[in-house]
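User: Here's a chain of 128 residues. Predict its fold as tokens.
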Amino acid sequence: MILGQEKLDKMQDILQENLIASGVRSVMLIDTAGNVVTFLNNGDETIDVYALAALAAANFGAMSCMARIIGEDKFTILFHKGEKENIYFCEINEELLLVNIFNNQISLGFLRLKMSRVIEELLSILSV
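Assistant: Prediction complete.
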């Protein structure tokens, strides 16, 4: 998959407007190999983006294997809840994952609602 600058800019706008503006601390679009496609944050976040991307991709890959063991084709979302911070990530398509870091001021239900819209919009950009 090749993303031109115009598509990437549109995708970043969608992530900024729908996730960062809604209170998500960081959002990262990565490929399934763990390469960072884009990273946005609220300005307060200082994380090792590349290490997190590699670990998120590996985690998603491991969960996909676990899904097959129990008879599922795959798991399309993963959620890890911490005391203060949470990570929610989901599959955009077979090549891309979207990773969100958010605190407990945002409910998982709210984020899932936002994510379903974001995924639709991202897929429409990717299909052009």
